[in-house]
Design a protein that fits this description.
five-stranded mixed sheet; Beta Polymerase, domain 2
Length: 150
């Protein structure tokens, strides 16, 4: 079993605490307060991304923000080969988990690979592509209150 460094573990705790999830390797793994299967899958994906040495893993709760899914996960690979390897491994793990009918896009160039299983959307980027699109900034803010202005 591979253990993460203290710094990596602290980053994972911080990133996952933002959405109320336990970090990879947590003692409460497999338990959610609401029994939400999407939250369970997010926890599993976070572990798999960590095992694939994905960097800067962020989980965003989309409930109440969008109908495209329940959660969005964003991670970086060091280069295009690493991004492709992460995506391939994640597809394999999703099939083994029973959630293998995910739609995958971007494997041709591996700059940005999207893996969408319906409830959880995973984006794996090369760092410079992730920095350009800034998906975390776009999706992690609170939904604005609907006000009618004239």
């Amino acid at each position: 079993m591979r253990t993460t460094s203290d710094a990596a573990h602290a980053r994972a705790q911080h990133d996952h605490a933002a959405v109320g999830l336990q970090p990879p390797g947590s003692a409460n793994m497999g338990q959610t307060s609401d029994g939400n299967p999407s939250a369970e899958l997010v926890k599993a994906i976070a572990i798999w991304l960590d095992e694939a040495k994905a960097e800067n893993i962020v989980t965003i709760d989309l409930k109440g923000k969008s109908t495209i899914g329940d959660f969005m996960m964003i991670a970086s690979g060091r280069n295009d080969r690493h991004v492709g390897g992460i995506a391939d491994m994640l597809q394999k793990k999703l099939r083994e988990y029973g959630a293998g009918k995910a739609r995958v896009e971007g494997l041709e160039s591996c700059d940005w690979v999207l893996i969408d299983n319906g409830d959880v959307i995973v984006h794996v980027f090369r760092p410079e592509v992730r920095d350009f699109y800034k998906l975390e900034k776009m999706w992690s803010g609170d939904r604005p209150v609907d006000e009618t202005t004239h």
